[in-house]
Write a structure and sequence with these properties.
This protein is of the alpha/beta class. The chain contains eleven helices and ten strands. The radius of gyration is 18 Å and the shape is globular. The chain binds (2S)-sulfonatepropionyl-CoA.
């Protein structure tokens, strides 16, 4: 059974993440279907894409599929990890991607949502960035995506508490563009997309790529990169990282002892 539903209408492409029984956990299989759909949208000259979950869900996406995270000793978020592939696919898609958000957005799914160009959420939606809950050392590109969108004190609070923040706070901080009630959000999002698809697709594609390149333009020396990778390795080599995975799989609270 497909894990997503897609539709194209009036140059607007829609991807519905539809693996509800696993709360749209971002598995390799789900991500592959999303990226293939984006490839098809690109071939069909789609001028705006909408990424959503089914109407009325309680969870937009539960984040990275924890069952697919490697055991300790291997970087869980390396360049070719499917979560990284999805974030890049959204950021490099040559047209606006609008996140239509109902329900909770968890872990790496927050970065996926934030990687979208415009975010519209219902009042009940929440956003929780949860590496600390699992003992995962988030990767540098991912931290940069978050840093570019979330003020540092709030990002630190979200990372250190792993607790959800409400949509109202996300709107106040400019992390999302609009809050719309569930009964209005779909019409609003497609009206927004309709205003985009009539404009120059070449101009929009170039400006989106300029913003992507400029927001990632940070001078970082090989020494600095290796130092940060070394710090991350201490974490994904640790007993705590394994404890986080084991606790999730055993459906119990983790007991982190800092080693
Ligand atoms: O027990 P079954 O087989 O029915 O499966 C359950 C859950 O195990 C499964 N599921 C997941 N499987 C893999 N990866 C996940 N992230 C994940 N989340 C859920 O879906 C089935 C239904 O889940 P259940 O019973 O808990 O649903 P619920 O409605 O009671 O609760 C929904 C959530 C989202 C509040 C709850 O599932 C939850 O807290 N999920 C984990 C959220 C989370 O911590 N995500 C971060 C994943 S790690 C990640 O994204 C990055 C690597 S990082 O850590 O760096 O951010």
């Amino acid at each position: 059974m497909p894990l997503i539903l897609t539709e194209t209408r009036d140059a607007i492409g829609t991807i519905v993440m539809n693996h509800v029984q696993k709360r749209n956990a971002l598995s390799d299989a789900l991500i592959e279907e999303i990226t293939l759909a984006l490839d098809r949208f690109r071939e069909d000259n789609i001028r705006a894409a909408v990424l959503r979950a089914p109407v009325g869900v309680k969870v937009w996406s539960a984040g990275h599929d924890v069952s697919e995270l490697p055991d300790r000793g291997r970087d869980p978020l390396g360049w070719s990890d499917s979560l990284r592939v999805l974030v890049r696919a959204i950021q490099e898609f040559p047209a606006p991607v609008i996140a239509l958000i109902e329900g909770g957005v968890w872990g790496g799914a927050c970065e996926v949502a934030i990687a979208c160009d415009v975010l519209v959420a219902t009042p009940e939606a929440t956003f929780a960035i949860t590496p600390a809950k699992l003992g995962v050392p988030y990767n540098l590109g991912g931290v940069l995506t978050l840093m570019n969108m979330i003020p540092l004190p709030v990002l630190k609070e979200m990372l250190f508490t792993a607790q959800p923040i409400p949509t109202a706070q996300a709107l106040n901080l400019g992390i999302i563009n609009y809050i719309k009630p569930a009964e209005e959000i779909e019409a609003f999002v497609y009206d927004l997309a309709a205003h985009m698809v009539v404009n120059s697709p070449l101009s929009i594609a170039v400006m989106k790529e300029e913003l992507r390149l400029l927001s990632g333009a940070h001078a970082i020396t090989p020494d600095l990169f290796e130092r940060m990778q070394g710090l991350r390795r201490v974490v994904y080599d640790s007993h705590d990282y394994q404890e986080g995975l084991d606790a999730f799989r055993e459906k119990r609270k983790p007991r982190f002892d800092g080693r």
